Amino acid sequence: MKVLKMTLGLAAASAMMVACNQNPNNGTTAASATETTAGTPEIVYVNSDSLLANYEYFKDVRSRLQTKAEQKEKDLRTQAESFQKEVQRFQQNAGGMTQQQAQATEQRLMQKQQQLQALQQSSGNELMTEESEEMKKIYDRVEEYLKQLSEEKGYKMVLTYQRGNSAILYGDSTLDVTESVVEALNKTYESEKAEADKKKEEVKKK
Q1: Parallel, antiparallel, or unpaired for β 43-47 and 157-161?
Q2: Which residues pair with 161 in a beta bridge?
Q3: What does the buried/exposed string (b/e) look like for 81-103 if buried means 16 or more CB atoms within 10 Å of the residue's CB?
Q4: Cα angle at 164 between 162 and 166, to 5 degrees?
Q5: Any idea which architecture 10-205 has in CATH?
Q6: pLDDT, tens digit, for every residue of 18-35?
């Protein structure tokens, strides 16, 4: 029986392209970004690979989902091994069974096999659903911050860049705001974690 294997879908996260206050008629591109009168570029970009590699919230989500997937895989493997032992015992003892007993045992084993297959499928679907929900949360977090940043800095558009899989062939490094974005996101996440830990301690004391 194939055992569940779960991997975090990084491809879904690479869709983090956020257009903030975009003017479709301004005719600008990443290679020829215009600047505001204050000298601030109207178009900047974020390296999605670097963002995900350094965003603590994403790393925590990935770790938690991988741990959950490994536990589910372990449980499924244990049940699959137990089922195989039952099949082997049946094969060894089938000669001493009546036809009715053998048919009843075969039917029971077939039903159990179907149940295990259904459990494997449902476990995989559950993990995929949870992963999709978590990636949406990450996207929403990044989008919310980039909108706020764009309002503060006067950016018209924030593009995403991923080496080997991007419409941006070249971007001046001065337009790369990845580091500052990751720093701000991590700072916010650290504050949220500290607040959550504080609330947990207060609940324990009650």
Answers
A1: parallel
A2: 47
A3: eebeeeeeeeeeeeeeeeeeeee
A4: 50
A5: 2-Layer Sandwich (3.30)
A6: 333 333 333 333 333 444
